Amino acid sequence: MKMDVPNNRDLIAGVQAQLDELLGRSLLRKRRHAESPAAPRQIVDGRELLAFCSNDYLGLAAHPAVVDALREGATLYGAGSGASHLVSGHSRAHALLEDALAAFEAPHLEQARALYFCTGYMANLAVLTALGNSTDAMIFSEALNHASLIDGARLARARVSVYPHGDVRALEAQLIASDAPTKIVVTDSVFSMDGDLAPLPELLGLCERHGAWLVVDDAHGFGVLGANGRGALEHFDLRSPNLVYVGTLGKAAGVGGAFVAAHDSVVELVLQRARPYIYTTAAPPALAHALLASLAIIAGDEGRERRAALQARIAELDDALALIRWQRLPSGTAIQPIVIGANDEALAASSRLHEQGLWVPAIRPPTVAAGTARLRVTLCAAHTQDDVAQLAAALNTLEAEQFELNTQRSQA
User: Fold this and answer.
1) Which of 132, 134, 213, 328 could cysteine-pair with 158, CB 3.0–4.6 Å?
2) Any alpha helices (H) in 51-146, and if so which ranges?
3) Are residues 360 and 213 in the same domain?
4) Vertex 409 angle, CA 405 and 412, to 5°
5) What is the domain-level CATH number for residue 321?
6) Integer Cα distance of 375 and 77 in angstroms
7) Is residue 49 assigned to a domain?
8) Which pLDDT tens digit goes with each residue over 259-303?
9) Overall number of domains in the chain
10) CA-CA distance, 1 to 69, in Å (whole number)?
11) pLDDT tens digit sequence for 27-72
């Protein structure tokens, strides 16, 4: 019997059809090419733009002390680590950084220890797969959690239950109904597309009453929240042995990587069990060396000054925006979302701003829910009052023009 020979060109045609569908729904994404360090004013594709899209919240990515430390680290340790941490890639720089991070978060954790990872994505995968490494475990996941937490829950052997955004009562009902001997509640601290804060005090209270872990992904809080920049735990003045803290070091800290901080025994379990830690080459030691300089800035007077400057920029944007149809979501964080609704309208708004020299990305599904496409404005300490005024004026004008255009269309 003669078998049909597959037409391999059909494989490419199938992929192209998927890309065409994304394009038709205004969901195709593209990259721009930054040609200068992360900063409010950045050269992008040969043109200077005023950027409101970076997570460099404290302006440390190009800070001279951090850059000098990175250069010194490369001189001391070379360009790469050469192996995984558990083989031969764990350097003195990594060890010093982990000790410093543990000491930094110690006021909020019992017998604190920290473990450094290449990325925040890997750290979240590691924690959930290590703690949830049993079908007897159950993970209670916030509905708006970051993709890395969702994927970590999927990869874990534990059962998964999703609770509605910020709904403490619904979570309590799920915890009461669960007979799992190991319960793990996991949440972002600052939600990356909405800018709001999880109700961490209430969540921790539930976890302590029901004997559950509370895993907090503080990607957008570490370095920014709290009087000393320790993040969401300091912001809410929390301390508990039930806490497992994940801090990102490529945002406010300005360099790269992430860390898990918790009780020494929890961190040891992650080190022993987590495949994302065991089976990957350690990050370059030079990055860890640079992060020591970054951490010193965050914890010192300059860090406090930069956090105060960021809060001033947030307040200025709040005062200057006068939107009619678009909705600025309530946020006291560096993330300031402006919901527009339709994908094509959000893309058009981003494009119009780009024409004026303003870099503000349009965020569309599946990152956000259908019908809630938005401009995601992120502010940083290095922005000036004039920068914020320029952005607000452009947004007010653009929204008013779009509102008038839509009114004319509805009346036609």
Assistant:
1) 132
2) 64-77, 92-105, 120-131
3) no
4) 135
5) 3.90.1150.10
6) 41
7) yes
8) 999 999 999 999 999 999 999 999 999 999 999 999 999 999 999
9) 2
10) 69
11) 888 899 999 999 999 999 999 999 999 999 999 999 999 999 999 9
